Amino acid sequence: MLKLRFAAPVEDRVAVVTGGAQGIGEATALRLAQAGRDVVVADVDPRGEQVAAEIVRMGRRALWAHLDVTDESAVHALMRRVRDEFGRLDVLVCCAGLLGQERPFMEQSAAELDRIMRVNVHGVYYCHQAAIPHMLERGWGRCVTITSGARNGSPMLAPYSISKGAVYSLVKVLGNLYPRQGVFVNGVEPGRALTRMVVPRFSEEFLADPGNPIGRYSDANEVAEVIEFLCSERNTYTTGAVWSVKGGSD
User: In angstroms, rounded to a whole number, what is the distance separating the alpha carbons of residues 178 and 47?
Assistant: First the structure.
């Protein structure tokens, strides 16, 4: 097996996954557990409790925590709780997000923009501010946030597009702040994965052949595989990057 010169020793690390009750978040929580991580599934959706139970059946420690990522004090309280109960906090994956209403720009209210930004941007901001100090204490940490190609401009999703543009910038900022202290921050841009956020919006025919180079949309587990790598000791040189997992599309 190839020996990575700068790889940290593999340890029983602890991960927090927001939006971990379903979709890419659920797939990521399970993949991290499979890779030997203990996982905190943080979500407003009570289905997160089932995900945590599945992780326990896999032989790892797990916790479901009801978390509204727009509540800054609750975010900080959860990260402290994780450190206290698990003894450490090594990995943060931000999958919690809202798509919002698909409408023309002039029909998108300021209230809708605020609602989307509070979850997709403020929530990600709060989580990193609350988690990174615990990682810096130990000299190792990995953070990944879900971005979107909509950051380039989706005419019917202005608030969502704006929010994902902000997340892209945040990844670039944080990814270049802490790598010498052992903390890497990255993003993953999945295009459309076959999750509850995507499937109801399109016909079966379109979902079967969306026109991208690979000829299909991704399974959430395929996205989770990339996230797991970026959160692992095997990632020794990637930070401040947004990885495209879109089947070859732009």
Answer: 34
pLDDT, tens digit, 9 for 90 and up, residues 172-217: 999 999 999 999 999 999 977 666 665 566 667 766 777 778 777 7
List, in order, residues 6 or more apart from 19 with CB less than 8 Å away.
25, 42, 43, 94, 95, 96, 97
3-state secondary structure of 231: coil
Tell me what pLDDT residue 143 has.
98
Residue 88 to residue 207: CA distance in whole angstroms: 41
Measured at the alpha carbon of residue 71, what is the angle toward residues 68 and 77, in degrees to the nearest 5? 90
User: Would you say 149 and 95 are in contact if contact means Cβ atoms under 8 Å apart?
Assistant: no
Nearest of 224, 246, 238 to residue 30 by alpha carbon: 224
Distance CA 148, CA 160 (A): 9
Report whether 146 contacts 104 (CB < 8 A). Answer: no
Cα gap 23→19, rounded to integer Å = 8
Number of domains the chain contains = 1
In a domain, 116, yes or no: yes
Domain limits for position 86: 14-244
Pairwise CA distance, residues 57 & 103, whole Å: 43
pTM recorded for the entire structure:
0.93
- Does 73 map to a domain? yes
Active site residues: 160
φ and ψ of 139, to 5 deg: 80, 20
Rounded Cα distance, 205 and 193, in Å: 15
The CATH number linked to 228 is 3.40.50.720
Q: Decide if 163 is inside a domain.
A: yes
